[in-house]
Write a structure and sequence with these properties.
This protein has about 190 residues and is of the alpha+beta class. Strand 2 and strand 3 form a beta hairpin. The chain is flat, with a radius of gyration of 23 Å. The chain is built from seven helices and five strands. It starts with a helix and ends with a helix. The longest helix is centred in the last third of the chain and has 46 residues.
Length: about 190
């Protein structure tokens, strides 16, 4: 397994770090805000922040408070990622996907239309309502993709179980079974 994935799993294995990421997914926050919302000391939150920064998941930036006070350091997500973990007998797959890049053409077109409507009419409420509808379409498509993924993973799992059973019934030694399964999965 790639070192990046192992490192990411170690980082995300901590509940406090996952909660920090959830809070920063909503909006950037400064240390005291995170400490209060997590009900964890600032020192402990800072240790977790440093781990998240070393993992490349968050970054910091400073905002000057003006003449009334010191600047404040905020933390924010660096980029969107998705983690996929599939583990069953004879097979495991852990993938990290950077969620940047391609957008389906029909969503590009929708975004272009929405941008134009905001520039031309300034009807923010109507545009926000349309954006909400687009989110519903995206969520529906994601649910369909996830449902299809479950069906395919179930098929893969059952097929692997079948191969295991057949090889075992044929008296194939464990080492040879692993080699055969590995060859099938490559």
């Amino acid at each position: 397994m790639a070192r990046r994935i192992l490192s990411l799993l170690e980082v995300l294995g901590n509940e406090t770090r996952r909660r920090i990421l959830e809070l920063l997914a909503v909006e950037p926050k400064y240390l005291l805000q995170l400490s209060r919302e997590l009900n964890v000391s600032q020192q402990a939150v800072l240790k977790h922040i440093n781990v998240l920064m070393r993992a490349g998941l968050i970054r910091s930036y400073e905002v000057k408070a003006g003449s009334l006070g010191p600047s404040r350091k905020y933390y924010e997500l660096v980029r969107p990622i998705s983690l996929s973990v599939n583990v069953f007998k004879g097979y495991s797959e852990i993938e990290v996907h950077d969620v940047v890049g391609e957008v389906p053409d029909y969503f590009k077109d929708t975004l272009t239309v929405l941008e134009r409507r905001i520039e031309e009419s300034k009807e923010l409420d109507a545009v926000l309502s349309e954006i909400k509808n687009v989110f519903k379409v995206i969520d529906k498509e994601l649910q369909e993709v996830r449902a299809r993924e479950k069906v395919l993973l179930n098929a893969k799992c059952r097929l692997l179980s079948f191969v295991h059973e057949v090889l075992e019934q044929l008296g194939v030694p464990a080492v040879k079974r692993r080699d055969i399964i590995s060859a099938l999965m490559d």
